[in-house]
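Lab manual, section 2.4: Encoding a predicted structure.

Procedure: take the sequence of the chain (147 residues), apply the prediction step described in section 2.3, and record the output as structure tokens. A sample record is shown.
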Amino acid sequence: MTEQKIRAVLDTNVIVAALLSKNPTSPTAEIIKRWRGGEFKLLYSNHLREEYAEKLLDRGVNLQQTAIFLNDVEGMGIEVFLADADILPRIPDDPDDDVVIACAIVGGATHLVTYDIHLRSLGEEYQGVQILDGLHFLYALRGDVPH
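Recorded output:
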């Protein structure tokens, strides 16, 4: 039996933290490095890719770094096509997050990585998707058990 490949949706706040980090060994920077190294599959929807672009530029990530990241997403990520019917009202306090969880569910993600309190309010697992912050996702990638 082969081990199932990790398939993850990274919420925008994880991407922003990674690309703004001054510490190359921060958990979020390491997550991006491990993704680029092929340790897990990144799932994204068109809406999520557009949000990445908007938020990275809004938060001051330089244009070249943003373009490289978005190019990597399109080249290495797995696009999840969402129909309007897939985007159900699951997060009443922040309806924009409905797209993020829909991407994870429709895409068959094993993990959703976020620091967003609204998404985390769904619990540690939602419809088969583990919802973790960056550090705990990193533990999962490394095979570590947190203390």
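Check your result against the sample. The domain at 7-141 is CATH 3.40.50.1010 (Rossmann fold).
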